[in-house]
Amino acid sequence: MDRELLRLYFICGSEDAEGNVVQTVREALEGGATMFQLREKGQHPLEGDALVRFASDIKRVCKEYDVPFIVNDDWKLAEMVEADGIHLGQDDVAVSDLPGYFDDKIIGLSVRDRKELEVSNLEKVDYIGTGPVFTTSSKADAGTAIGVEGLVEMRRLLGDMPMVAIGGIDDTNYKSCLDSGADGISLISAIAWAEDVGAAASRFLEE
User: Fold this and answer.
1) How far apart are CA 156 and CA 50, in angstroms?
2) Which of 11, 131, 143, 184 ranks highest by number of CB atoms within 10 Å?
3) By the 8 A CB rule, do 132 and 166 touch?
C-alpha cells in the first residue's frame, strides 16, 4: 500500500464526537485526513441495521474525498458495507482466517512490541499500527505506553513495512512520532473533540 495514506489516520465511532459524527468525519477529511477507520466501541455502541447505516453513511463521505474507509475488528460489517479494508488487534480474528473478500483489501494489524511481532503472521498485512506511544484515555484496553523509544525499536524490527503510530498523540508530540520512524499518526480525540475539526486535522499535516 501507499504509506502516504497513513500520514493522518483519523479514527472515530458514534460515541467519540458530539453532535453529528458523520459531519465530524467530513470536516476531518476536508482538513486533510488521509485515511479513516470506523471503530465502534464504547458503552452504547451501535448494532444491527443502525450500525450498517452509520457505516454506509461514513463510507460515502470517504468516497467523496477519495480516502480509504477501514473498519476496526468487525470483518462481517466490513464485508457487508464493502469497506476498503479492516484493522485487526491481537485478540481479533486471525488475518489468515479472513474471508476471500479481503485478499485485495487493506489489512492493518496492531503490533505493540517485539513480543507481539514474534507471534504475528504478517503475510497478508499491509501496515502495522504501533502503540500506545503515549498514555491515552480514548482506548480503555490500550496498555502501557511504549514511548517514542518503542517506535524506534519497532521501525528497526519492521524494516520498510508501513507503520502508523497510535495512542495519546496530540499537537505537542506528533512530530516526535514521525521523527521516530512512523509513516503517520492515528488520532481520535485530538481531532474528534476539537472545536474546529478541520483546522485541527490540518495542523497535524505540518512538518
Assistant:
1) 42
2) 131
3) yes
Specify whether 124 is catalytic.
no
- In the set 26, 39, 59, 155, the catalytic residue is 39
In the annotated binding site, the residues are 37-41, 72-73, 92, 110, 136-139, 168, 188-189
CATH superfamily of 3-203: Aldolase class I (3.20.20.70)
Is 59 noted as a catalytic residue in this protein? Answer: no
pTM: 0.95
Q: pLDDT tens digits, residue range 87-102?
A: 999 999 999 999 999 9
Respond yes or no: is residue 139 known to be catalytic.
yes
Q: Please tell me which residue in 3, 56, 120, 139 is annotated as part of the active site.
A: 139
Helix (H, G, I), strand (E, B) or coil at 200: helix
Predicted confidence (pLDDT) at residue 48 exceeds the cutoff of 90:
yes
Q: Where do the structural domains in the chain lie, given as residue ranges?
A: 3-203
DSSP 82: T
